[in-house]
Amino acid sequence: MTGARDPAIDALLAAARMQFAGSLPAKTADVEALVAGGAWAEARRAAHKLRGSAGTYGFAALGAAAGAIEDTILEGNDGPDAEARSRIARRLEEMRVEADRAAREAR
Amino acid sequence: MSKATTKPNQETATPEPRPVFEPGELVADTYEIRAMLGAGGMGEVYEAHDRVLNRRVALKVVRPSIAADYLLREGRALAAIHHPGVVAVHTMGAHRGVSFLVLERVHGLSLDRMIDDRRARGERFAAAEAVELLIDIADALAVVHRAGLSHRDVKPGNVMLAPGRRVVLMDFGLVLPHADRAGHRSVAGSLQYMAPEALTGDMAEGAAHLGDVYALGVLGFELLTAITPFDGEEPVEIYRGKIRAPLPRVKTHRPDVPGPLDDLIAQMMAPDAHDRPQGAEAAVWQLRALRARVGSGGEARSFSVLVVDDDADMREALTLYVRAAAPDAEIEMTSDGRQAVRSVRRRVPDLLLLDLDLPDINGIEVCMLLRGMQLGDACMIVSVSGRATRADVELLQQLGVRSLEKGPGLMTELVDLVQRMRPTRS
Question: What percentage of chain B's residues is helix, strand, coil (to nearest 5)?
């Protein structure tokens, strides 16, 4: 990056990151609910969004867990099998931990 | 390639020859012909896919009736120049006994098409816009002249507006070293844009490059008025118009154009080469000095960006990253692909940031639609994805689309990209 950035933009970026961090537990709960309901297409989309946005806002571990969920859903044509579901459950747990940590930092 | 061009050895009475290459043909085991981009009196230009380096290129061939050394001369001239305002040459080769040049594939709109589009809408280039374009063209010409060469076919059809507001000088088929006195005596070029001395072959020693300055003046006249300055069907009529006083003035058609700009265009079109700015570099400085007179605030367009992502958090992040590099950018946002195409159709942005995984039509389909309709040619398209596959990235690369990955490094890459794209007003 070159040149000095407007401090107002830095403040906006920090505020956006904090706001995003605060929303992570709810976003994680959304993915969890979709997985629990077997709405795999919707769960994949929600996980996909988090994969990109969490990674971009600097929550790499949460983004990686969301990405793993998306990839696992995409592996099965008729929805994930039992083994895949247990992998998804483990990744959801990781997401919950990371989301809570991020939200605490944001407060 | 030129429409109304007078070029040496050109056969005008013969029927349209068959294309040299066919779509699908593999040239020199490397270049797969995709489509013909243009054909003219001198030869043809094809779009091809370079299978080895996985990129789109342009292949240029000359007709058998044209001496093959034209292509070699063009290739060597381009190889001597390295500048963003001049189309790059990759290599030269031969296939089935036909020599070809492999050039950078410049996606964009030619200036003559832009002039036509505006004319059709009853619009013309604003003075500030025209000055910025002329500065960029003159800048590229100055590099050509410093290499000891004259372009000899400067005209709107040979100037491309590429993504990132890059202005690119194309078609060096008539290029000659300044020192080639005999070459400069042969009459070649596009009538409207040729200096009087180029039409008569009566070029003063050391003044070969001033023909390009003349052509730049005619181009400037056309940008501002949407008409060419010299009427006439026959070369002799056009020639008389070029040397007959009073010369056409921009102000006759555009009273709003500042006097100094009108004067400079007239000076560049002076019948006597010694009365013109003495080189493209001199023209650049005079044009830069005019910037303040034509105003850069009200008339010049601001940097525009279209952000397409179905995730509101990503839209916000991308918007802030663009703002970090370009606080005054005009940013439009949308969450679906069809709306993105509609938006580009309404107004082509400078930069399109496109998520690949969209709910209705995906980002790759959006790119294909835009490229197919030649809508996105003048804007830089950047895909921003969280899980683009290698095949996706290669396909996007072929479409002239740059790929960025969502993640912690996105901000740095995007800010850097926008900073490099923003027009400088120095």
Answer: 40, 20, 40
- Contact list, B358 vs chain A (CB under 8 Å): none
B393 pLDDT more than 60? yes
Which residue in the set B357, B359, B407 is minimally distant from A56, CB to CB?
B407
Residue type at position B197? E
Q: Residue B158: name the closest of B110, B113, B190 by CA.
A: B110
**Model-level pTM greater than 0.80?**
no
Residue B14: pLDDT band with limits 50, 70, 90: low
According to DSSP H, which parts of B126-195 are helical?
Answer: 127-146, 181-185
**Residue of A49, A71, A72, A75 best to disrupt the B interface, most CBs of B under 10 A:** A49
Distance CA B60, CA B83 (A): 20
Token pair of B84 as six digits: 């963003």
User: What's phi and psi for A75, nearest 5 deg?
Assistant: -65, -40
Q: What does the mean pLDDT of chain B come to?
A: 85
**Calpha distance B283→B138 (Å, rounded):** 7
**Any B CB within 8 A of A59 CB:** no
The whole-angstrom distance between B320's CA and the closest CA on chain A is 7
**Mean pLDDT, all residues of chain A:** 90
Buried b (16+ CB within 10 A) or exposed e, B362-401: bbbebbebbbeeeebbbbbbbbbbbbbeeebbebbebbbb
Three-class SS state of A66: helix
Above 0.90 for ipTM, yes or no?
no
- Distance to chain A for B397, nearest Cα, Å: 21
State yes or no: pLDDT of B1 exceeds 50. no
CB contact under 8 A, A6 and B327: yes
Examine the pLDDT at A18 and tell me if it is beyond 80: yes
A45 touches chain B (CB under 8 A): yes
